[in-house]
């Protein structure tokens, strides 16, 4: 039989980046770019439905796909614009990637590494082993690595970075879809993550003149999808009903079994998860706070890319997940971005003038989650926004509102918007009517999930004595803004506290204290997972909480 001819390889010149990459014939440009280490935004798992991966072919543009013609204007298609996930490379070509995509992701994302004072319980007896260990917190957006002295139970170094799997989508669903495409894609997701972990921990050791061979133990926490991907297990069951994981517990492994090279002989404990999308980050974090042993009722929220809700009362813990996270991290928002320098993280008003606080004080480039929530709360308070979520036009706003604020309400061909920052050199930072709907779709399931857990435990919302909000978003948001949106019950006013990175704290304590490792395992086994998707009362509460509360 004649041998199959090898696939042709074409050269792709990337305009503005001064770089060329190879692409096999018939491979989408998005896949070719990702293989070359480039990050291009895509929120739909390469299904051609989000329109985020637009690129412009300056030379040798392929024929437009039906998705190109559906999502792009006809003049754009004629000018060479294509969706990177649908455009297959058929010849040597030149491609322009819009500036905002690579620039944003080349910057260093801000990562919350430590827990707040409320989360610093001290166990009685450390492990006492000689040598060093690493505690790893794998988030969908960010990753934190802690270097620990095991004998002294002391943190001696920390490194953080954006999860390299973001190249395959910003949320767990896009990565679940990508991993399910085949063994190669699944292994690539694991390889990128483990390689980054391997390098980060080795660098921490090198900075402190510690040989990597001295690092003997590692604990890993993450949401359930991250747990599957670090173990190279297809997480597809988490993406389809009934949304249950392939596993919740992992036996002790050696680093080489996960693809570690420098840490090949390290013993790795991927800590146990609960069920559904409740992973080991939640179990370890709740155990670290000691919530099951506390008197009274505590509500624990982790508002990262996924919304995780736990209610602890009298030694009983129930938990659930909701699709609250994406908008809260700037995903699906017109001017949304993650916590990169320049992201607006605080929106306030003083003497009728808008005030914006950005990460690192850079010029405003977009909205991260806390800035988004502040902005919506401001519009509600000033009467620009009805409880239904409808954004009013300028003439409908009370004349008592300062003209400078009213003048920020704009109407255009693409709908109504509120101007936060006018950027003469690029895209303005705006809040659109669609963004407000996305916020409603994020806060309603969170609030509905709280209702369902209260019902499960037979408690009233007035019984909640404290609301502990974990994660970077929880540490930067103003509790008043969260209450203004109706994301949490009005009765918890004054009881909302940020507790920082409790997942990282849990990973460190489980690495160095045997009783904490046992507590995290018990927490994972005993926490009752409530599947909100199967609950009619959740759907009813979701509808009830879509509107915003009347402004106070």
Q: Provide the β-strand percentage band.
A: 15-25%
CATH-derived architecture of the domain at 117-279: 2-Layer Sandwich
> Could you tell me the mean pLDDT?
88
**Major beta sheet, specifics?**
6 strands, mixed
Compute the number of helices: 18
The Cα radius of gyration reads: 24 Å
CATH superfamily of the domain at 117-279: Domain of unknown function (DUF4445)
Low-confidence stretches: 101-107, 118-124
Structural class: alpha/beta
By DSSP, the count of extended strands is: 23
Could you name the CATH class of the domain at 117-279?
Alpha Beta
Distance between the termini: 79 Å
**For the largest beta sheet, what order do the strands appear in spatially?**
8-7-6-9-11-10
The CATH topology of the domain at 117-279 is what?
Nucleotidyltransferase, domain 5
Explain the layout of strands and helices.
Blueprint: E1 9-15, E2 19-24, H1 29-35, E3 54-59, H2 66-71, H3 74-78, E4 81-83, E5 93-96, H4 100-106, E6 132-138, E7 142-149, E8 154-162, H5 172-179, H6 183-207, E9 215-222, H7 224-230, E10 253-254, H8 255-258, E11 267-270, H9 280-289, E12 297-303, E13 307-313, E14 316-322, H10 325-328, E15 343-350, E16 353-358, E17 366-367, H11 369-381, H12 403-406, E18 409-412, E19 415-421, E20 429-432, H13 433-457, E21 464-470, H14 471-476, H15 479-485, E22 496-500, H16 502-512, H17 514-526, E23 528-529, H18 536-544
Parallel strand pairs: 1-5, 6-9, 9-11, 12-21, 14-23, 15-17, 21-22
Antiparallel strand pairs: 1-2, 3-4, 3-5, 6-7, 7-8, 10-11, 12-13, 13-14, 15-16, 18-19, 19-20
Helix pairs in contact: 9-16, 9-17, 11-15, 13-18, 16-17
